[in-house]
Design goal:
With 601 residues, the protein is of the alpha+beta class. It has 16 helices and 31 strands. A hairpin with a 2-residue loop joins strand 30 and strand 31. Helix 11 packs across helix 16. The structure holds oxalic acid and manganese (II) ion. The site of oxalic acid (OXD) has 6 residues, from loops.
């Protein structure tokens, strides 16, 4: 299967420029002069256009149409095996000074980088179609909504952007004739999909992105990690709002009390599962609904935080998704879905490790090779993905399209930690909560290239996504707290604690409702907790554990803190802060001292 496809020739009337203002037209002409494509295709986002592009992509072997009886209107794409995850080592923040990018980002000097990238882009689209993809991030009527234009030579990117964003004429209309309007300039070219010519570069001051040499979603759907998080976080810092790597969910009690919660977990740590949680039987009448599964843009209004999901679809990790782990995701991806790097069964269905039922006797694996259950290789890549429209989600929150956003009652930070960190605890106040986010750590996953399973600090799950100096980012969080008269309460969760035998202690998935319930009860001020050196912890009796199959001693461990472990943990925080070279604000250094004092007190 191919990433790179030759130019397409659309029927008359399709792919023509309609409604672009002069700044957009001039810029596209400039990019075309540089990249010399065979033709230019302006996307309008219509059904007819999508049907044509899907048909062309299938004809060019970029996607395979799946069996309509099994997964209606759905397709499979296989990426180049050298190109299956985000590449943090080749991701750059190109600010005028190194300090502006800060200690956690790769920095590259803007003029030099433009020069290098323009060299790579010269003639890069020869014989290919240059697609112009205008898109809006955020509900179109939201004050936070942003417009981007991505030009790309990948038809797979176009098909994915139509799912993941509000794409096409709607974005050009929003810009209208306003030549001063703010919009993001994004250039993507596959080049020859060679890892040695793979660079994902961000120019925050110019609101521009150039991504070359990759076809993997996180590197090339420029709306997502590049605009909504890296450039977004910089714009948020400048403009006084927050762009965060957070899901947003609604939780409603049987009495009709509703709260919205935003949660930051690192990549592939279950944000999509949490955002679509189905409460266990014991919680009859409780409802969880999804506003977003990956990114939250939050603004301050009336002293509160209000969040919108800038995206229009979900780009989730497939392996492990099943009717047991996430029935709502299974329903969402049962039709109109674009799969990447899962296995193809002989009857045109998709398969992955962890899917319900027995594995197929034979399939074609993600590399395109014949596969049987005896094969040593996995059938689906560990970071194989689905792109599915958010409107496929049976529990989409009714406010998901609301431009004003939803009021956030609680923020949850969480990582994948085998030890030390309890199942749940609550920060004592805003700055303590910022400290919990800033010192978050998680065992690494397959969402990025590199070793899997190593503990790394990942502040607010933003380590790969904060587009400016992390010290300024921490200060921005602290300053935001000062502007909030009704701030969300801040919590920390860890679904992944293990016993000595290496077995998970907590069942997770639907049972996380038990923790969510305690969180909303804390928000309502109706539930007790014990004050411990690291924050407020529930005692086993404070949680609704009825019908839960977890032994008492496991529950004790899950809710315990060990002083020695925490002294080690705080030492690791110190090492991490020191590694940032003096950018950590005093408020956070003070928080650490206070926790240390409480621990030894
Ligand atoms: C993602 C990621 O794809 O965080 O959402 O890597
Ligand atoms: Mn993510």
């Amino acid at each position: 299967m191919k990433d790179i496809a030759p130019a397409i020739s659309p029927p008359p009337g399709m792919g023509e420029k309609k409604g672009a203002n002069a700044t957009v037209s001039d810029w596209v002409a400039e990019v075309a002069d540089l990249t010399t494509p065979a033709n230019i295709f302006w996307c309008d986002g219509s059904e007819a256009e999508n049907a044509y592009l899907l048909q062309e992509a299938a004809r060019q072997d970029v996607v395979i149409k799946l069996n309509d009886q099994k997964v209606p209107r759905s397709y499979l794409h296989r990426s180049n095996p050298n190109d299956v995850a985000r590449v943090e080592q080749f991701t750059f923040i190109c600010t005028p000074t190194r300090e502006e990018a800060g200690p956690t980002n790769n920095w590259s000097e803007p003029a030099e980088t433009y020069g290098k990238l323009n060299g790579l882009l010269k003639g890069a689209m020869k014989g290919r179609t240059l697609f112009v993809v205008p898109y809006i991030m955020g509900p179109p009527d939201s004050p936070l909504a942003k417009v981007g234009i991505e030009v790309t030579d990948s038809i797979y990117v176009v098909l994915s952007m139509r799912i993941m964003t509000r794409m096409g004429a709607v974005a050009l209309q929003r810009l209208g004739d306003n030549l001063e309007a703010e919009w993001n300039r994004g250039i993507h070219s596959l080049l020859d999909v060679d890892p040695s010519r793979r660079f994902i570069c961000h120019f925050p001051q110019d609101n521009a992105i150039i991504s070359v040499g990759s076809g993997y979603g996180g590197n090339v759907l420029l709306s997502k990690k590049c605009l909504a998080l890296r450039i977004g976080s910089y714009l948020a810092f400048q403009q006084g709002w927050l762009a965060e790597h957070m899901l947003i969910l609604g939780v409603e009690s049987p009495e009709g009390q509703k709260h919205y919660v935003a949660a930051a977990f690192p990549s592939a740590c279950g944000k999509t599962n949490f955002a679509m949680l189905i409460p266990p039987k014991r919680f009859a009448g409780w409802k969880v609904s999804t506003v977003g599964d990956d990114i939250a843009w939050m603004q301050i209004r009336d002293g509160r935080l209000y969040a919108v999901n800038p995206e229009n679809g979900y780009f989730g990790v497939v392996p492990g998704t099943s009717m047991k782990s996430n029935p709502n995701a299974m329903k969402s991806i049962s039709h109109d879905t674009l799969y990447t790097n899962v296995a193809l069964t002989d009857d045109g269905d998709v398969w992955w490790e962890g899917k319900d039922g027995a594995p197929p006797a034979h399939a074609i694996d993600w590399r395109g090779n014949s596969w049987t259950p005896e094969s040593k290789e996995k059938a689906a890549h560990a970071n194989s993905r689905f792109a599915t429209p958010m409107h496929n989600n049976p529990v989409l929150d009714p406010e998901a399209e609301s431009g004003g956003g939803v009021p956030i009652s609680a923020i949850i930070f969480g990582g994948r930690r085998s030890d030390t960190v309890p199942l749940i605890f609550q920060a004592l106040d805003w700055n303590h909560g910022v400290y919990l986010g800033a010192t978050m750590a998680s065992e690494t996953t397959a969402a990025a290239t590199g070793a899997v399973g190593q503990v790394r600090r990942d502040p607010m799950a933003m380590l790969p996504f904060c587009g400016y100096n992390i010290g300024s980012y921490f200060k921005h969080w602290i300053a935001t707290g000062k502007r909030l008269t009704n701030p969300p309460l801040i919590f920390n969760v860890n679904w992944f604690r293990k016993n000595e035998a290496g077995k998970f202690l907590w069942p997770g998935f639907g049972d996380n409702m038990r923790i969510l319930k305690w969180i909303v009860e804390r928000c309502e001020g109706s539930k007790a907790a014990a004050e411990k050196p690291i924050g407020w912890l529930p005692r086993p009796n404070d949680l609704d554990l009825e019908g839960l199959d977890v032994p008492q001693d496991a529950m004790q461990t899950l809710l315990s803190i060990n002083r020695q472990d925490w002294e080690k943990e705080l030492e690791a925080h110190k090492v991490f802060f020191e590694s940032l070279g003096g950018v950590v604000p005093k408020e956070l250094l003070d928080q650490r001292e206070q926790i240390l004092r409480r621990l030894s007190g």
